[in-house]
Records
---
Amino acid sequence: MQLPIYMDYQATTPVDPRVLEAMLPFFTQAYGNAASRNHAFGWKAEEAVDAAREACASIIGASSKEIVFTSGSTEAINLAMKGVAEMYGHKGKHVITSLAEHKAVLDTAKHLEKQGFEVTYLKPDKNGRTTAADVAAALREDTILVSIMWANNEVGTVNDVRGIGELCHEKGVLFFTDATQAVGKIPVDVAADHVDLLCFSGHKIYGPKGVGALYVRRRNPRVRLVAQMDGGGHERGMRSGTLNVPGIAGLGEACRLAQAELETEAARAIALRERLQQKIEAELDFVHLNGDAEHRLPGCLNLSFNFVEGESLLMGVKDLAVSSGSACTSASLEPSHVLRSMDVGDDLAHSSIRFGLGRFTTEEEVDFAARQVIDTVKRLREMSPLYEMVVEEGIDLSTVNWQGGH
Amino acid sequence: MAYSDKVLDHYNNPRNVGALDKKSENVGTGVVGAPECGDVMKLQIEVDGDRIVDAKFKTFGCGSAIASSSLATEWVKGKTLDEALSISNTEIVQELSLPPVKIHCSVLAEDAIKAAVNDFKAKRATTAQEQSAK
């Protein structure tokens, strides 16, 4: 077992060696421009792009003509939201999204507000979940777009996508979902789930960074977008720019593998996640699961540990590459906006750790991680005045008049 | 974030972790910070005459906060109350090479020392009053 152990699969994933293998020829041999129509180099590149487009469509139940390649989810989000807003802004100026979305969605929504749109930010429930009923309550006559992520990147909660999709189709409102954490991890079907626009990214599914895809529905309804990038009119005019052929080939292969192995891989990730959670909870009290116990991603476990602070916790689990819900390390003392939207108290938000498990995680690594977390939390609690107050002295911390907080 | 060797040393081998009997006449207790802010320090001193003979701490906070309070207990031991009160946060910053974003940890440690000394002084004043009332 090599240290440190990578447990941050929601941040990014290693490229699967099989994916790398599929990409390599397109750097030095088949390096043609997929838009070159008059020679074999171009044809070969186009062939690879077509095959990748098929694989990207297949994993989400779309047709290949509905796939637009982008540089990743952030670009796809910008294209989807701004593209819809500009195309359909004359019909209405209202957009619905959620407070637990990724910054790429939230910042794009802010941009739309500056353009004169009105945005409703739904508050998720305490498990981070948004349902069709939440969206229904916010829908208006002038709503043109609903943007709700499929699964949350911090806590792994899976939203009621099918319910929201059905509602949107019934009301004639476009539904965009950021499925960056969902595609390749759980079943995604744009037809059955009534999704109009959907994005995902290569590097979350063992493909390369810098490539992603946007699904744009072609019928019932046909979705039109105003392009955000002007140029040679690639990707049916929706995204100009020479196609990143090696990246796209990698994305395609990543999708093919993820689709073929989805069930076994999900079952394996769930087993590892449960093993990790059970081991930790067997030895530690005052552990909170952040996120929805039922509707959740296979490989994501977000836990908070009362009475210990996040940064010191991360310092203690020094052999684990994990992520903290507290942005303390970036000097701002601001807890994560996702945990805050779920009403997780600031003290618990500060002590949260996200364990991201994936394709290359082993049982041995999980056991090592559990041990290091348990030992660190125990050690830090021994020196925590809060643990002493609550556990030994029975004090309710909310009744304490704290002095001199910074 | 890169931690200085001294911060790492205090984090890995904190000095004087523990508790003194806060009901004891000779013990002063200072608790500063708040859980929402990510830092709570409890620093206790045991005083003999005018001199601090023992000190203990418990800290909920980042590595720099733990190191600052650990260092504070080391420094106050053997000092008189007035000497302890004169310890300033800038000395802690210097000793631990704290980066600017962690200066608040040193401020909190200074506050904790002052709170513990003041708690002890208040206790002693009350005891003296009670005795003179007898």
---
Amino acid sequence: MSTATLDKNDSAGPVDSAENSASHLITLTLRIRRFNPEVSEDAQWQDFTLKIDPKDRVLDALHQIKWEQDGTLTFRRSCAHGICGSDAMRINGRNRLACKTLLKDINPEKPITVEPIKGLTVLKDLVVDMEPFFQAYRDVMPFLITNGNEPTRERYQSAADRERFDDTTKCILCAACTSSCPVFWNDGQYFGPAAIVNAHRFIFDSRDEGGEQRLEILNDRDGVWRCRTTFNCTDACPRGIEVTKAIQEVKRALITRRF
Amino acid sequence: MSTTETTEAAKNDGAGEPTDSVTLYDVDHPAPVIEPPRKRTAKTPKASRGNFEMQTWLFMRLSGIVLVVLVLGHLLIQLVLDGGVSKIGFAFVAGRWASPFWQVWDLAMLWLAMLHGANGLRTVINDYAERDNTRFWLKMLLYTATVFTVLLGTLVIFTFDPNIR
């Protein structure tokens, strides 16, 4: 009771919220691509109708279905706050993180379609086999490579040098970019945007000395030269990384050998 | 909370009807999953050395710039200037090819356009032909056609005889 404002809110609060809790909910349809190899070899669409707050996220809707309607619905999520990269899925035909997509932003008046990301083997419902994706990630050696003795102190880096690769440090390995790439859809041997982004993060790091090796790997038949600059990856990235720009910078580094 | 569940398979009585599949697949005998084309595995061959892809990528950009000048100039001369398309005949071509400048122009345009187009088709085939065999034979067909056209064109430019009957 320290301020008048709080008093007013308190007195009006319970009644309002009780009324609101019912009135602000909307009815929406979630159309989910279901696949269960233990039941059928065909995937099929299934509609779920639920009452939910439009300010909730797609992930909340999926939770509500799994917890209250159909416990067999299978999807990945870990942190549920847009940082673990587990719940990338194709929502209304676009790759997004279910935990960062608000229902009110994707027109809840029409059925919202939810599919697994493309170009990877679907194991069940929205869960795909991420192994080829991580294999490409491992192939670009995403770790610090240095020569000589370890320094006794930390490796110094200027703010400008850090800024050089800042954009690509934001990757959370959700595979939204790689699974939106039409080249990757047709040829899984292509490294894909995410692997190139993570190579970029070390190639342009002033402390790293493995740049030449990584560039050599990406100079391969299935490396950066397969990029057709369709910008699907940049559009898909939930972290706002300019993926296509990063790929172009790797191409430029390969031609000029300056990085 | 209202719950309505409709499956498309239930609506259209197609092959995916649950009653059929239940007898076919269970926990011990799951259905085969659909693997994406040319999946990357741990056994995928490591990077091959060589700058071929980089060189073709650079060639596409550089030849593209040169072709803009060559092709637009060609179209302007052939179709717009000095009476337009109606002037083109054997005599017109013979007159132009009497000069080494136009011989070099046409030769450069032939080679650059053919290699530019062939390389573009090569990348399309690489992107879209799924099976190794299909890819190989499509590319062989492409290379044969390209070599034939380039050689024939070059032969004509160099051995052109204005007095032929």
